[in-house]
Amino acid sequence: MFSAVICVYINDQPFLLERALRSIYEQDLLPSQVVVVQDGPISCESNSIISIFEATLKQKKIVFTHHIFPLNVGHGKARSRGIEICLHDIIAICDADDINFRDRFRRQNEYLVQNPKISVVGAHIQECSDDKPISVKKVPINHREIRAYCRFRCPMNQMTVMFRRQDIMTVGGYQDFYHNEDYFLWIRLIYKGYQLANIPAILVKVNVDPQTFVRRGGYRYFKSEFDIQRLLLRYKISNKAIFIVNVGIRVFVQLMIPSGLRRLIFKVFFRN
């Protein structure tokens, strides 16, 4: 038995939200509970979609929990609250504009059952724009590879992870860290000796909009990435040479170039 958590906020497009929710109740292995965290006010259309989703879950005898924040509190706090009110220790994280492949929950749940020392399991993603595939983001598979990769980039695709709540909460759970709440969490888990893994398969189709690469630039995003690199250095996961190289790359990619070129660089150099 496991729970699924999905956070919704005002900028989520209703038609993508509807598809994301449908991909949860059409899974080969259904969750026992679905938690929808509403991060501030949302549109009437999105509210209607959530109501229909609730009715569908009740027909399938799946527990539905809807937590509403009156004002937007951010992804970190929203996900943290969702995890707190889950009924089960195994939790799948879903995004409100991404589509879960039908076998995702089954494969990840089986993996955690068969590998009790693994705290978090993720997978590869297919990135799409207007339903057209544009790139595949692969991630390292075993913990040794994940720890090494972590020095350079986030080693897990956030929208694909399933984890053990007890382990996540032991290191403080999700916390605010501008656009890097998940990366911050994986670093703390690795530092404390918890094991992470990824299934070598694409399990989620991710919507990429023109603003995706705009959001990955600017001073505030750079500051968040810089703080991540300092944390890796402080925890001795990284070293001074890697720190200097990583910060230099981020100065160029996040502060010095336009978003169009940034998108090209991500597609050519940071995707498979």
Q: How do the strands and helices of this protein lay out in sequence?
A:
Elements: E1 3-8, H1 14-25, E2 33-39, H2 44-59, E3 63-69, H3 75-84, E4 90-94, E5 98-100, H4 104-114, E6 118-129, E7 132-137, H5 143-150, E8 162-164, H6 165-170, H7 181-191, E9 195-207, H8 219-234, H9 240-256, H10 259-269
Parallel strand pairs: 1-2, 1-4, 2-3, 6-9
Antiparallel strand pairs: 4-8, 5-9, 6-7, 6-8
Helix pairs in contact: 1-2, 8-9
If you had to describe this structure to a student in words, what would you say it looks like?
By secondary structure, the protein is α/β, with parallel strands linked by helices. The chain folds into 2 domains: 3-209, Spore Coat Polysaccharide Biosynthesis Protein SpsA, Chain A, CATH 3.90.550; 210-272, no CATH class. Helices cover 43% and strands 23% of the residues. The chain has 10 helices and 9 strands. Strand 6 and strand 7 form a beta hairpin. Helix 1 (14-25) packs parallel to helix 2 and helix 8 (219-234) runs antiparallel to helix 9. The model has no long low-confidence stretch (mean pLDDT 92).
